[in-house]
Design the sequence.
């Protein structure tokens, strides 16, 4: 009987000890309210203009329509200010394109092909990027590029093939020699490739397109 009572006491003491260890275990759960019940849903309490980039732009537009955040590059105004149409006519771009076999009829025939490969849809879905990034580069550089383009069109496809070979060869030289940009020490090959590789592809593509148009 004494042994039975002793066994029951030991079992009771052990269960009490386990319960005590369980009860004092710290809570490691992380909460924004620091466990004090003071947390709030910030999305429901914050102003609308802080709920994302789109909402913020709309809010700024109500304050100032032509703000720096919502401002768009004015392509038509800059083309007029830089007299690009006059420069195009003076360099005979259109007449040289026609001499190479590229006219409005040829361009019209290319539109279904461009749509088939999704290029027109790509342009339509990225209007803001094209207007605010690509258009400034093209329009602001046009006064220098138009005379060069006019001279290349006068020569024909060989001029564009030569440009592609020069750009591609320069990029290969920079990579092969592990050249670095002065002052900053960055590798010149990858950095210059951001410009040289697209120029190589575009020049070769234009040369091939002119050669194909001239055969027709």
Sequence:
């Amino acid at each position: 009987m004494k042994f039975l009572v002793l066994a029951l006491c030991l079992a009771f003491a052990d269960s009490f000890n386990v319960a005590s260890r369980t009860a004092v275990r710290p809570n490691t759960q992380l909460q924004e309210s620091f466990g004090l019940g003071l947390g709030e849903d910030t999305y429901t309490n914050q102003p609308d203009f802080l709920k994302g980039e789109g909402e913020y732009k709309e809010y700024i537009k109500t304050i100032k329509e032509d703000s720096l955040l919502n401002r768009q590059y004015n392509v038509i105004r800059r083309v007029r200010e830089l007299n690009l149409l006059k420069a195009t006519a003076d360099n005979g771009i259109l007449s040289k394109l026609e001499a190479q076999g590229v006219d409005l009829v040829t361009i019209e025939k290319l539109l279904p092909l461009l749509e088939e490969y999704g290029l027109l849809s790509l342009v339509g879905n990225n209007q803001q990027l094209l207007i605010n990034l690509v258009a400034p580069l093209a329009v602001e550089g046009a006064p220098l590029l138009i005379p060069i383009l006019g001279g290349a069109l006068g020569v024909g496809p060989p001029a564009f093939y030569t440009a592609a070979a020069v750009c591609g060869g320069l990029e290969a030289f920079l990579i092969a020699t592990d050249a670095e940009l002065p002052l900053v020490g960055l590798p010149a090959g990858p950095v210059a490739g951001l410009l040289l590789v697209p120029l190589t592809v575009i020049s070769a593509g234009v040369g091939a397109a002119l050669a194909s148009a001239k055969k027709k």
